[in-house]
């Protein structure tokens, strides 16, 4: 967080320095007013278009992060429910199910989460452990009706777990389009550059305008960057749903 504010402040100071230099060496001329109407119109159009790109980018990364939060919570809840349901299975199958779900959760927290934080895919091992969990709950022929009903609910939770895991893997790979990144960076530069086209005679007013605009654009772009990878950065989705559910196991 401190690094983000340092970058925002640094860019704002750089643009302020450029404004001061411009007013010192190239002060606005008295005949500069007619050109200001054209500059104002162009700047307004660039600002509107940039706001559209910025809004689209923010919505995209926020929806990805929100989806990641939902998938993680659903996956952890399904794994927790499977462990609870294992108590209603026959003793041998119940023990196998508990061991399999504990191994799966341990792998997700200790191996997959650091990999996703580093920008890597979760890997195939998690699916192998999920298959082991699916095979552990096979009910013998002499199972009671209650055990059969518990198995059906366990299978339903396994389906939920499977879907949530697929969603989590998709969220880890879903990043902002390079086209939108191009629009964010180039549009931000153009928006700030067009501020230098105005013939503002009060240098202090011009400095405040340019500093505020450049700081706001920089902060917003950095915010999009932090939200772009849902499992990495300041706003990263952590593994707390898994550790919370399985803290006492």
From TrEMBL:
Keywords: Membrane, Transmembrane, Transmembrane helix
Keyword field contains Plastid: no
Keyword Transmembrane attributed: yes
InterPro entries: DUF4239
Pfam annotation, one family: Bestrophin-like
Transmembrane segments: 6-26, 38-62, 179-200, 207-227
Protein name: DUF4239 domain-containing protein
Species in which this protein is naturally found: Streptomyces bangladeshensis
Source species taxonomy: Bacteria, Bacillati, Actinomycetota, Actinomycetes, Kitasatosporales
